[in-house]
Design brief:
By secondary structure, the protein is α/β, with parallel strands linked by helices. The protein has one domain (1-101): 3-Layer(aba) Sandwich (Rossmann fold). Helices cover 45% and strands 14% of the residues. The protein has a three-stranded parallel beta sheet, sandwiched between helices. Helix 2 (20-28) packs parallel to helix 3 (47-56). The two termini are 23 Å apart. The relative contact order is 0.18. The mean pLDDT is 93. This is Response regulatory domain-containing protein. Keywords: Phosphoprotein.
Length: 104
């Protein structure tokens, strides 16, 4: 929810998903996004599974993983799922702006 608030604050239209399965279903319904902020720890389908599924569906949106994990092995596993970038929580406005600057 904090990420959604931050995106709203900088004027970015966004949609939140409660879990990874919902994120995949949103894309299956035909919606598309320039940026996907993917939390690693989610119920029903975690961020790694959701990212793999989105990539297997041909989704080319920039996917940035966010997690409180900073161990190299966990970051590598998430990146290998198909992330374009990875940021350690907490996500702040400076980190968010750097992401947005790269896609706008």
């Amino acid at each position: 929810m904090i990420h959604q608030w931050m995106l709203n604050k900088v004027g970015v239209k966004n949609q939140a998903a409660e879990n990874g399965k919902e994120a995949v279903q949103i894309h299956c319904s035909g919606q598309g996004f320039d940026l996907i902020l993917m939390d690693k720890e989610m119920p029903l389908m975690n961020g790694i599974e959701a990212t793999k599924e989105l990539r297997s569906m041909g989704i080319c949106s920039k996917i940035v993983g966010v997690s409180s994990h900073s161990e190299e092995k966990q970051i590598q596993e998430f990146m290998e799922a198909g992330l374009d970038d990875y940021l350690v929580k907490p996500l702040n406005m400076a980190k968010l702006r750097s992401i947005l600057d790269n896609i706008m």
